[in-house]
Amino acid sequence: MTDTSPKGPVPRASVLKIAPYIPGKSQASGVDPKSGKVFKLSSNENPLGTSPQAIAALQASTHLEDYPDGSSSRLRHAIADAHGLNPDRIVCGSGSDEILSLLSYAYLEDGDEAIYTEHGFLVYKIAILAAGAEPIVVPEHHHTANVDSILAAITERTKMVFLANPNNPTGTYVPFDEVKRLHSGLRPDIILVLDGAYAEYVRRNDYESGIELVANSANVVMTRTFSKIYGLANLRLGWCFGPEGVIDAINRIRGPFNVNGAALAAGEAALADSNHIARSVDHNETWLKQMSDGCQALGLDVTPSVGNFILVHFSSDGDHSAERADAFLQDRGVVVRRVTAYGLPDALRITIGTEEANLAVLAALKAFLGR
Ligand SMILES: *Cc1c(COP(=O)(O)O)cnc(C)c1O
User: Fold this and answer.
1) Residue 154 has what DSSP assignment?
2) Which of 217, 241, 272 is the last residue of a domain?
3) What spacing in Å lies between the alpha carbon of 2 and ligand 1's midpoint?
4) HSE-up (13 A, CA, CB side) for residue 246
5) Rounded to an integer, what distance in angstroms lies between the CA atom of residue 185 and that of residue 204?
6) Is residue 11 part of a domain?
7) Cα 300 to averaged position of ligand 1 atoms, centre (Å)
8) Ligand 1 in contact with 233 (CB < 6 A)?
9) Tens digits of per-residue pLDDT, 5-28?
């Protein structure tokens, strides 16, 4: 137990309400008997790895004795060029998780409320509580964020709404028309945070990451990451595009050198490697469908996903539970993500992997279900 006796230092009450984030496992109890390998499909990392150009840039980034560029200037300009944005309205962070925290610290006070959805990304809850505010969790509809339930939860204390679009761990998305309707229903003092961690993967005509909405309003922020399609999760790099006032607030409170030089160099090169990104998207397109179809053919329900992972549903008890499936897969070297903390005790989130990993998943699930 945490020692909170009056003798020692006591953290603010909301800090003790935080359940520490449990990352996806990277170890398996077993290894695949055929290949002798472990397939890590628990953290939505890019199965094609890092862009070779980014690795070259990383290796060329020396002078570790020098502080990095504290304003991430070159990378912000590269991001701005790639997306057609004003570089002054971008802030880079040590992962987009840092940006989510900074937004919360800058805007939330004790007693404020911040909304996210039923199966929404859990870093929001941590960021909200760490800032001393109250997380308000609203119901989803078919594992998808619902604009009406978000709007119905707004009170005079609401300061922020977090929407992962597409969401992790469900893989579902909210069409842009609905995002705009959500924004229209918010008071101008409420910040809408659009988390586009998987935006690059989405191939839907009615989807947009929200750049246009940010550009044309004073209370919308879009966060993005280099951890997923860009294959740089290890270096911790993310960014946001937001209104001038929000960017100013984040710049006041962020660490003066919050992004390291290796990440800046590799990020710039990864952004420029459109070939690697295109290959990653193509691979995902092919295997997202094959994995969804393959699981369904085995009789499993799969939530329709537009990301680089699928949410697969198991029976709530007995021999074919998610818990048993997880153990069975692990024994065969396949590491996936349990999502009980997301209110989904009967589901597993499985990242789309290499062809070899994907086939290992389908074979293991088939054996598990005795098909
Ligand atoms: C992975 C993920 C992130 C990215 O986090 P980083 O700190 O940039 O690695 C952000 N939001 C969601 C919904 C994610 O799944």
Assistant:
1) -
2) 272
3) 28
4) 30
5) 24
6) no
7) 27
8) yes
9) 668 998 888 889 998 888 877 777
45 lines ligand 1 (CB under 6 A): no
- Rg of the chain on CA atoms, in Å: 21
- Is residue 100 over pLDDT 60? yes
Same domain membership, residue 354 and residue 297:
yes
- Residue 123 has phi, psi (to 5 degrees) of -60, -25
283 and 214 share a domain? no
Task: Tell me whether residue 1 is in a domain.
Answer: no
Structural domain tally of the chain?
2
Q: What is the CATH number of the domain that holds 32?
A: 3.90.1150.10
The number of CA neighbours under 13 Å toward the Cβ of 144 is: 15
Phi-psi domain of 9 (left: phi exceeds 0; alpha: psi -120 through 50; beta: other): beta
**Boundary residue ending a domain (246, 272, 298):** 272
Host domain of residue 34 = 23-49+275-369
Nearest protein Cα to ligand 1, atom 6: 95
Is pLDDT above 80 for 4? no
Nearest CA to ligand 1 atom 11: 197
